[in-house]
Amino acid sequence: MDEQPRLMHSHAGVGMAGHPGLPQHMQEGTGGTDGDGRKQDIGDILQQIMTITDQSLDEAQARKHALNCHRMKPALFNVLCEIKEKTVLSIRGAQEEEPPDPQLMRLDNMLLAEGVSGPEKGGGSAAAAAAAAASGGAGADNSAEHSDYRAKLSQIRQIYHTELEKYEQACNEFTTHVMNLLREQSRTRPISPKEIERMVSIIHRKFSSIQMQLKQSTCEAVMILRSRFLDARRKRRNFNKQATEILNEYFYSHLSNPYPSEEAKEELAKKCSITVAQVSNWFGNKRIRYKKNIGKFQEEANMYAARTAVSATNASAHGSQANSPSTPNSAGGYPSPCYQPDRRIQ
DNA sequence: TCTGATGATTGCCT
DNA sequence: AGGCAATCATCAGA
């Protein structure tokens, strides 16, 4: 530390050397010999500061030039930079090495998975595919919703990329500006390239925190869109008339045991263009509702029973099989509407 | 707008 | 795991 006063003194010496704008006694570096003389000098300097004009700025440029040309300048600045490095910057440096932010990684992963960042996925997101599978049946409506989802997702993607580009551009502009400024200043004050580098990384950190906010809000938007899309599965559509007929036909022709096997369910699902789960739901609902109010379903049961009987008769007449899928439980018979849930045949 | 019908979901049971 | 029962949410006709 005892170096500094000496250095500062020599610095001052460099700065004042041969400057045309300063009083003669300042250029000589001696100052006044008595107290009144010193006060006079300080007063002169203050006076100069207070009366800076365009002309004095020109003088400052000349002074800067003189400073740059001084033979001691590079060595002096090197030493000053070293001292700075050892004090302030080393303290900051200890805090610089940060592990990758887990939250940022999570956001990046999610944006990648949803196809917002990274290469655009042709078939839309995993969420869309999952929801498409979940909603099963209504194909046309589903694909319409799917494309709606994709359109909204690509809108989010576009906004995200535009904003990201804007931030990156602003970051680059600002970094360049600060670097130029520091390089320029490094001619008149001790700034090492390392310090410039550090400043750049500080700027990048600031901008990346802004980017993180952008990523966060983008993720939120995707989540909202996704949940809205997945909720759409609750928007049920009634099965078409033909599907209902097929299901009812099976139900009433197997009234004594209305529990289709897995194969039968698959066959029904195929015929009705719905999922096996929907077939199961339908039979679950039908059984419980039939049981609760047999009287109400009497007419329907009779109608389907008659229809089944007719088709069975036709089938036997033509020597072919009946229309209903696989299980020939009550085939040929006239299933009376006497379903008793306790008497399952299994 | 109301109301019954109906597909889906949930929690419990066997 | 599959079924039952209750319930929810939406559709569709009056």
TrEMBL record:
<dbReference type="Pfam" id="PF03792">
    <property type="entry name" value="PBC"/>
</dbReference>
<dbReference type="GO" id="GO:0030154">
    <property type="term" value="P:cell differentiation"/>
</dbReference>
<feature type="domain" description="PBC">
    <location>
        <begin position="37"/>
        <end position="231"/>
    </location>
</feature>
<dbReference type="GO" id="GO:0000981">
    <property type="term" value="F:DNA-binding transcription factor activity, RNA polymerase II-specific"/>
</dbReference>
<feature type="region of interest" description="Disordered">
    <location>
        <begin position="1"/>
        <end position="39"/>
    </location>
</feature>
<comment type="similarity">
    <text>Belongs to the TALE/PBX homeobox family.</text>
</comment>
<dbReference type="InterPro" id="IPR017970">
    <property type="entry name" value="Homeobox_CS"/>
</dbReference>
<feature type="DNA-binding region" description="Homeobox">
    <location>
        <begin position="232"/>
        <end position="294"/>
    </location>
</feature>
<keyword id="KW-0371">Homeobox</keyword>
<keyword id="KW-0539">Nucleus</keyword>
<feature type="region of interest" description="Disordered">
    <location>
        <begin position="312"/>
        <end position="346"/>
    </location>
</feature>
<protein>
    <recommendedName>
        <fullName>Pre-B-cell leukemia transcription factor 1</fullName>
    </recommendedName>
</protein>
<dbReference type="InterPro" id="IPR008422">
    <property type="entry name" value="KN_HD"/>
</dbReference>
<feature type="compositionally biased region" description="Polar residues">
    <location>
        <begin position="312"/>
        <end position="330"/>
    </location>
</feature>
<dbReference type="InterPro" id="IPR001356">
    <property type="entry name" value="HD"/>
</dbReference>
<keyword id="KW-0804">Transcription</keyword>
<keyword id="KW-0217">Developmental protein</keyword>
<dbReference type="GO" id="GO:0005634">
    <property type="term" value="C:nucleus"/>
</dbReference>
<dbReference type="Pfam" id="PF05920">
    <property type="entry name" value="Homeobox_KN"/>
</dbReference>
<dbReference type="GO" id="GO:0005667">
    <property type="term" value="C:transcription regulator complex"/>
</dbReference>
<dbReference type="InterPro" id="IPR005542">
    <property type="entry name" value="PBX_PBC_dom"/>
</dbReference>
<dbReference type="InterPro" id="IPR050224">
    <property type="entry name" value="TALE_homeobox"/>
</dbReference>
<keyword id="KW-0010">Activator</keyword>
<dbReference type="GO" id="GO:0043565">
    <property type="term" value="F:sequence-specific DNA binding"/>
</dbReference>
<feature type="domain" description="Homeobox">
    <location>
        <begin position="230"/>
        <end position="293"/>
    </location>
</feature>
<keyword id="KW-0805">Transcription regulation</keyword>
<dbReference type="InterPro" id="IPR009057">
    <property type="entry name" value="Homeodomain-like_sf"/>
</dbReference>
<keyword id="KW-0221">Differentiation</keyword>
<keyword id="KW-0238">DNA-binding</keyword>
